[in-house]
């Protein structure tokens, strides 16, 4: 729901304080009436001041509400920035893991083909090194996925609690991480490569 546009109250036209009337002290009735009118004019003057102060107070309250609203929205967007930052961190883990898995698989396959073609006789050491790189990449990816899941669950819980308490707005979506889905698929690919190399079965054997 859109907030009404705040309008600053117009500057108050300063009215002079009503002067004390000069009355004939010998005539009590006339003096009483004159002082009564004077008290009435003072009361009207105070009422005018009070109304202007009330308008200013309402305007300040409206400004305060707008600042609170903006603060809530900024806090809500900070959750989105934190989520994207966690995705970028997982992307870095994916890049490193993919490099390790691809290098290890390439080293393993090259020396395995050389051994099969009888170009070289023994290729256990480089093949073991390639396998170790694949295992290192898969292990790093598993740790990255676990850390990402723990962080995102904690972040979602914190955001849900702040939305419930009315500290932030929950209007912006908080979708599943596509980076996490990609990491899980890459993990499955790495595990398939390890099984193919170890048991000589599957698409990478």
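-> sequence recovered:
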């Amino acid at each position: 729901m859109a907030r009404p546009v705040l309008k600053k109250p117009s500057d108050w036209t300063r009215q002079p304080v009503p002067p004390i009337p000069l009355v004939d002290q010998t005539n009590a009735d006339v003096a009483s009436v004159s002082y009564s009118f004077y008290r009435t004019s003072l009361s009207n003057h105070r009422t005018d001041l009070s109304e202007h102060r009330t308008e200013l107070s309402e305007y300040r309250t409206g400004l305060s509400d707008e600042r609170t609203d903006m603060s809530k929205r900024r806090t809500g967007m900070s959750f989105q920035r934190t989520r994207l930052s966690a995705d970028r961190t997982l992307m870095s883990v994916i890049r490193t893991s993919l490099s390790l898995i691809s290098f290890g698989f390439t080293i393993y396959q090259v020396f395995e083909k050389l051994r099969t073609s009888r170009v070289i006789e023994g290729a256990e050491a480089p093949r073991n090194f390639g396998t170790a790189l694949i295992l290192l990449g898969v292990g790093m990816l598993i740790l990255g996925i676990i850390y990402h899941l723990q962080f995102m669950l904690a972040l979602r819980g914190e955001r849900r609690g702040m939305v419930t308490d009315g500290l932030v707005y929950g209007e912006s979506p908080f979708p599943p991480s596509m980076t996490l889905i990609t990491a899980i698929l890459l993990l499955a690919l790495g595990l398939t490569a390890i099984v193919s190399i170890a048991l000589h079965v599957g698409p990478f054997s």
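Residues 28-116 form the longest helix (89 residues).
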